[in-house]
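Structure in, sequence out. Go:
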């Protein structure tokens, strides 16, 4: 999986989100700004993203993900 593939996957699952992905191989950093995270605790936000990525983590396409997850208000 490439960073661009991962970005498209996240964008498809988080409508109207600002998504940045960096990394190579199977290690990535994902920055997502989305109002979907509103009133969610940090662990809940991570669970939302892992729900999208679990299939690729299980297959080994993704080994490690560092997440920075914010709402629009937090990012401003």
């Amino acid at each position: 999986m490439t960073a661009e593939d991962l970005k498209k996957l996240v964008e498809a699952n988080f409508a109207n989100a600002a998504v940045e992905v960096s990394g190579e191989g199977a290690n990535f950093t994902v920055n997502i700004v989305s109002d979907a995270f509103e009133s969610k605790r940090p662990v809940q936000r991570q669970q939302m993203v892992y729900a999208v990525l679990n299939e690729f983590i299980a297959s080994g396409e993704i080994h490690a993900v560092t997440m920075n997850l914010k709402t629009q208000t937090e990012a401003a």
